[in-house]
Amino acid sequence: MNATTPGALHMDLTGLLDAMAQAGADDCMPNLLTPAQWDTVGAYLQPLTVSAGHVLFPQGASDRTLYLVESGSLSVHYQDEKERVRLAIVGPGSVVGEGAFFSMRPRSATVQASAPSKLWGLTALRFTELSHRHPDMALGLAMAAGAVLAKRLRNRRHRVAAT
Questions:
Q1: Is residue 3 scored above 70 in pLDDT?
Q2: 3-class SS at 56?
Q3: Which domains does the chain have, with CATH numbers?
Q4: Cβ-Cβ contacts under 8 Å for 86 (sequence gap 6 or more)
């Protein structure tokens, strides 16, 4: 990631923070960090812009990256042993990849952009670095992503959205 001043990082994350503040979905991610903490956390995030149709990750992949959704929408597809496909839509202010991030298991579903989307990725390695250098911020981010996972698991109809 290119070196950026903290002020510039804050400007870059403004869209994400606005999306979290304005999200109305049941599975939106609570913002448990201050703007100054987001400036620090931003150095650990990788921006990603994807076009409609792009597969972010397939079901069964071993990658553990957590993605924070700033804009767009992502379709979650799960195919069970009876070949039925279940869908969920994840929008701005939420996350995808939280299931594998916490469980260290393969992805439980395929996530594909259904519209052009801007995301912020946090790899497991970068999260480990964050947790060693700024444990309070890592804990806040983990608790926020964990809150999304808990909400999704509590809602049986959208349980498949825990990716």
A1: no
A2: strand
A3: 6-161 (2.60.120.10)
A4: 77, 78, 80, 160
